[in-house]
Design a protein that fits this description.
Helices cover 44% and strands 8% of the residues. By secondary structure, it is α/β, with parallel strands linked by helices. The strands form 2 sheets. Strands 5-4-3-6-7 form a 5-stranded mixed sheet. Strands 1-2 form a two-stranded antiparallel ribbon. Strand 3 (251-262) and strand 4 form a beta hairpin. The chain starts with a helix and ends in a 26-residue tail after the last helix. Residues 4-10 and 512-518 have low confidence and may be disordered.
Length: 519
């Protein structure tokens, strides 16, 4: 044993390091680890920047549709490689027959839909140029032409004679009807036209000023703004009534959108305010509420007495409602789908797998909608068909999240969806709830269109007035109420309406005009 030990000792070389050399070696190892870690961070950053660049290119040059069309691999491999295809020589055949020559007939005119019956008619009788004296009328040809006359301004002149009553009983005069603007000279029709033109047709006030100038009427923009402010003050009680009605619902959707606002705090620049939108899909009522910021103070104040289901996107401001008694949060599947759509360039196989499963969920919703199912029937359908797909999605995401980079597009998509998963699946627990928030996003669209035309609100008060008008115009649209007819009628009745009956003027309670006829 001693001999063996001595032989091993003789063959072993011992390297002795000084303390300084040992510390240098440790520092070198540490720096290598730091470099490896730094390289990993830089690779992740490069991947992130590539994803952002691809996203920017899609926003500028790409299609805006989020529709998913799955790739069918079977269409790419038909097993025809190396097969020579020879064209078959056509067979010839000689045919001969005799037929009667058809008589010439007049080509019938193009069939058109009848013009809407509710439109007024101007009749023009055109007699023949020939002398028809002694002739007998056997009928008439009627041709209807759809025409248009530009809107014309006119003046309503109220003449109120004054009378002195006998026996010194005083002076009497006819009572002037209530006007939308007290001591103003703008009628209900003009006010309704100005507001609908801006907030429905997206024609800013300064463009309307130019239109009126072509009619020979000079209306300063400041006058138009004053009329608009006074009209909104008149509509304020009706707005408060609608707010109460919306918040009575037990199922709301919520979202927010920015609106630039001019303020004295930022001379030469705009303040980024936000319009928060709350939508009741069951009663088709929408509420727009302006706030100076995107903080949670806005929804906290509006929804302080709300009880029911609240469906939102993944914005953190809504998270506080998870802890609020009486409120159950639902998430939006369309927002999750958008994340995987954006990740399709990063990891096509994984992204398309999830998009395919989401497409199956939406097919179930389409089936329920086309069959016009009740809430109970839709709930039963989801329990039978949707839950299986939802479980498969959850298991797949839990398996794959540990296989992808956290900062990659697919990693972010999976993490976003898993974080909100308990809220995303709640729609399957109630047949009256929707799978996504798309209905409220449709309601917000007029604000986005308006921003492109009038660019900004002139003040915070102006943004509040815009939210008020968007509320009523949105309700009119959802209930198929013609906005000009509703607003002009409401402005004429509102000054004399008792506050207890003001709800009768809400668009949801107002009768509609005849439905539009396709021409």
């Amino acid at each position: 044993m001693k001999e063996q030990h001595s032989k091993n000792t003789e063959n072993t070389e011992f390297i002795t390091l000084s303390r300084s050399d040992y510390e240098s070696l440790l520092l070198e190892c540490k720096s290598n680890e730091i470099l490896v870690e730094k390289e990993s961070e830089l690779q992740a950053e490069v991947l992130y920047l590539k994803q952002e660049l691809d996203k920017l290119k899609r926003m500028i040059f790409g299609a805006k549709s989020e529709r998913f069309i799955p790739t069918d691999s079977s269409q790419l491999a038909l097993g025809l490689e190396g097969v020579e295809l020879k064209e078959k020589e056509p067979e010839t055949q000689t045919l001969s027959y005799t037929r009667n020559k058809p008589k010439k007939t007049e080509v019938p005119g193009h069939s058109r839909m009848p013009l809407p019956a509710h439109l007024p008619r101007e009749e023009h009788v055109i007699e023949p140029e020939e002398n028809v004296e002694g002739g007998k009328k056997i009928g008439e040809e009627i041709t209807e032409i759809l025409d248009y006359k530009p809107g014309k301004l006119f003046v309503q002149r109220y003449i109120r004679p004054k009378y002195v009553l006998p026996e010194d009983k005083g002076i009497v005069i006819g009572q002037l009807p209530s006007l939308p603007i007290s001591r103003g000279n703008a009628g209900k029709g003009l006010l309704a036209h100005i507001i609908v033109s801006k907030f429905v047709d997206h024609i800013p006030f300064y463009r309307q000023v130019q239109q009126f100038k072509r009619e020979g009427v000079v209306l300063p923009e400041s006058t138009m703004n004053g009329w608009f402010s006074a009209t909104c003050r008149l509509l304020s009680p009706l707005y408060e009534k609608l707010k109460i009605e919306v918040l009575k619902s037990d199922y709301l959707m919520a979202d927010e959108t920015p609106i630039p606002v001019l303020t004295e705090d930022k001379p030469g620049a705009t303040h980024k305010g936000y319009i928060w939108v709350y939508y009741d899909p069951l009663r088709r009522m929408v509420l727009f509420d302006y706030r100076k910021s995107r903080s949670r103070e806005g929804p906290n104040e509006i929804l302080k007495d709300f009880h029911g289901k609240l469906q939102t996107d993944g914005y953190e401001a809504y998270t506080i409602f998870e802890k609020q008694n009486g409120i159950t949060l639902l998430a939006c599947m369309a927002h999750a789908r958008r994340k995987f759509k954006e990740a399709s360039d990063n990891d096509k196989i994984r992204a398309e797998h999830m998009l395919g499963l989401m497409q199956d969920l939406y097919a179930i919703e389409r089936k329920a909608r086309e069959a016009d199912m009740s809430h109970e029937e839709r709930y039963a359908l989801r329990q039978k068909e949707s839950l299986t797909i939802l479980r498969e999605m959850e298991n797949w995401m839990k398996e794959n999240i540990i296989q992808v980079l956290p900062k990659s597009a697919i990693g972010k998509a999976i993490a976003y969806t898993l974080k909100l998963w308990h809220r995303l699946i709640r729609y399957a627990e109630d047949g009256k709830c929707e799978i996504d928030n798309n209905l409220i996003e449709n309601a917000i669209r007029p604000v986005a269109l308006g921003r492109k035309n009038y660019l900004f609100a002139g003040s915070h008060e102006g943004a509040e007035r815009a939210a008020l008008v968007y509320t009523f115009m949105g309700c009119c649209k959802m209930n198929q109420v013609e906005p000009f007819s509703w607003l002009s009628d409401t402005l004429s009745r509102l000054p004399d309406m008792k506050i207890s009956r003001i709800g009768e003027l809400l668009p949801t309670n107002w009768s509609t005009i005849p439905a539009a006829v396709e021409i």
